[in-house]
Give the backbone structure.
Amino acid sequence: MSVTIDIAGLPPERVLFAASPLAELGHALHVLAEPSHHPGLHGWVTATAAGLKPDLADRLCEADFLWGSVFSDIFLPLAAVPSAEGRAGATLADDLDMLDRLDDERFVEAALDVSCSGYYADASVGSPLHDERSRALTLERAAARGPRNVVFAQRLLEDPPGVRAWVRRLMEDCEQAFFGDVWRRVGVQLATDVRHKTEVLRRRGLREALAEVSPAVSVDDRGTRITVDKLSSGRTTALDPAVGPGITLVPSSLGWPHLLVLSAPGWRPVIHYPVGTPGLPDPASLDLLKLRMEALAHPMRLRMCRWLARSACTTGELATEHGISAPEASRHLAVLKKAGLLTTRRRGRYVLHQLDLTVVARLGSDFLEGVLR
């Protein structure tokens, strides 16, 4: 599974790197709502949550589905305003002004999609503001997500301008309460990352620039399609005339391990990628992660791994220890080796195999990163 972006014929100058204060605020709110996704930020979560005034904390709870388990597109208005040409605002106020330029229909669809709309899945779905069937389906989906979702969806459908003003005030209050300090700290890092990757793009091309974004992002040999390795499927184009040709890549200091792709119909594609990961090696691909888990799922290979974790062994030693034939032991070793779980070295005429404990230890964080990507 993956998300693909058609870039055939896209001029190089239409690929942009841009830091967005509003997008980073969205990630900050997500970390507060889902701290288990971000174990390295528990200290910041505890300190920030403790400092929130009760009124602000209550209002954040009212709309936390906009940034909780999923990430609403309202945090990336740069992708929907044609005149922005994919560029973010210099300040949070600039980004919020850009958000205000979205018409009610687009804002409502983006805000409700995370919990109870369907415009990502079906571009033909009518707006719940005007289509009764779509409205009923939206409220039905909201009801399945809980009473707070229903209340918010009803308010938004009945009074879009009022809810939009409420959301803007909420974002402004977050800036005053904690995000202003966050942006002063991470904004410089993100601006540096944007400059660096823009220079890589200019000097070494798109393939090298995407390689620095994430090992999960790649471009095909013809340079016509970007693929993002994710446990979801989607397809979009960077050549939509409605918003103008282009793709924007937005760094996040708080986003690890999430690698997000905005691929909504009628929106400019955006890849929202993490920078400053917690000092871990590059993540394994999802295919390799699947291969490793399948290799370890077999009871005989799991028993062999216990032995191989303690010492290096030959194929014959493993066969004898586990009561199987040498060819059968060799087949199991081949599966483990293909999955990258073994190290092999020669000692005279013997070949010794041993479990790579570093790789096995990484499986926990690789799995977490894979499912949250």
Q: What stands out?
A: Residues 115-119 have pLDDT under 50 and may be disordered. The longest strand covers residues 247-252. DSSP finds 14 helices and ten strands in the chain.
